[in-house]
Amino acid sequence: MSEEDREVRERARRFVDEELIPLEVETELSGGRLSEDVREKHHRMAMDLGLWAMNMPKELGGGGFPMFRQVLVSEQIGRVTNGLGWCIHTPPAWAPEVVTKEQLERWIVPTIRGERQECYAITEEGAGSDVDAIEATVRRDGDGYVLNGRKWHVTSFSTADYVFFQGKVAEGPNAGSHAMLFVDTDTPGLRVVREPAYTHTLVDTHSELAFEDVRVPAANLIGQEGDGLGFVYAWFRYERLMIAARCCGAAERLVDEATAFAQERVQFGRPIIENQAIAHMLADSLTELWAARLMTYELAKNIDRGVDLKVQHAQCSMVKLYASEMANRVADRAVQIFGGRGYMRENVAERFWRELRVERIWEGTSEIQRNIVADQLAKRGTRTLTG
Ligand SMILES: Cc1cc2nc3c(=O)[nH]c(=O)nc-3n(C[C@H](O)[C@H](O)[C@H](O)COP(=O)(O)OP(=O)(O)OC[C@H]3O[C@@H](n4cnc5c(N)ncnc54)[C@H](O)[C@@H]3O)c2cc1C
Questions:
Q1: Which of 13, 95, 300, 327 can pair with 67 through a Cys bridge, CB separation 3.0 to 4.6 Å?
Q2: Would the CB of 159 count as within 6 Å of ligand 1?
Q3: How far apart are CA 160 and CA 9, in angstroms?
Q4: Predicted TM-score (pTM) above 0.70
């Protein structure tokens, strides 16, 4: 870790400790609502601290952080509950290389400046793990495209002003292939069907959306017809690594908080940490956290070293699988150590215990990560994937 890495990590840590963690309970108890003033303040601070768009190229106004440094920041974001850390936004890093100059200026650069925000509409009722089963359609019509389909779980639609829409080309030589397009949220024909309640308490919603004859110019197509799935995979790889980093941060916070509690909570005349049953839960949690952190750091450095993309793909699945399962085990133990207090919403262990559950589901479930890892193992062997 270089001096600059350390400095950036501490900058992010201070922001999380001093500004975000103190708001957790209030956010939880108000159903995830935060005043516009507070949201705006966090947004400004993330920008002033140089953490907003840390993943985007410097020449476009981003932070230009290497992957390792991004992981260090994401770990800190993971230490806070209720999605409060999401104010440190990372726009789509895969985009600058594939979008047109006009798309760059209209959507990507304003996102880096913090003036616009994106969300992804890929999942459908019949297409979750099996992304290729999507039925949304992209039909060429004159100088534009007409989009139709229903999308589920669209995270942050409530705060976004444009959507990455994924559909299948309806006609022509590329029929049946995937296409991805920019769609502004105020485009006629796009509407919210419902905003269901989820297990966690976040500011951001996960909307169900209907696209009904949504007409966009052909210039909104990203790359070529047929390129769409490649962009989704690039997004998945990045998010899987960042999920691993956030899970390490969450586990660190949980181990710290549960250890402090176990040292001060006295039952039967002595601190509960003096019971081996409690001490061993902490020891297992710390050990698993260290393993996950080493994997996460090593993969980030591999990416900075330019390791083969297929190897990256498998390693992103491995860290996401291991770190998300690890963090859930740690959260469950932390609830147990806090006892009845661990079941109260004002307790950090209770909130993480609910919130971390989704890390085993989104961006590919644990089962799908195992399928990817096993497939790559058969193709490439142990040495390539773990050497
Ligand atoms: C809070 C939240 C936010 C989300 N945000 C977004 C978003 O912003 N944009 C977006 O497009 N999507 C989003 N998603 C969708 C998410 O990516 C999917 O939920 C996830 O990929 C799983 O799909 P599914 O829910 O349809 O489950 P399914 O695919 O129906 O899977 C159900 C179960 O079957 C298992 N299973 C399926 N196939 C296999 C297999 N081949 N082998 C073994 N087991 C299998 C799964 O592991 C799972 O346990 C979000 C989901 C949630 C919960």
A1: 300
A2: no
A3: 27
A4: yes
Tell me if 371 CB under 6 Å of ligand 1.
yes
Phi-psi region of 213 (alpha: psi -120 to 50; beta: other; left: phi over 0): left
pLDDT at residue number 203: 82
What are residue 138's DSSP bridge partners?
A: 147, 169
- Is the CA virtual torsion 380, 384, 385, 386 positive or negative? positive
Q: Does residue 232 have its Cβ closer than 6 Å to ligand 1?
A: no
Mean pLDDT calculated for residue range 26-42: 94
The pLDDT value given to residue 98:
96
Using CB atoms within 10 Å of the CB of residue 319, give its burial: 0 to 12 exposed, 13 to 18 middle, 19+ buried: buried
Cα separation, 327 vs 267, in Å, equals 27
Q: How far is the CA of 328 from the centre of ligand 1 (A)?
A: 17
Q: Are 71 and 297 in contact (CB under 8 A)?
A: yes
CA of 109 to the centre of ligand 1 (A): 30
- Pick the atom of ligand 1 nearest to 198's CA: 1
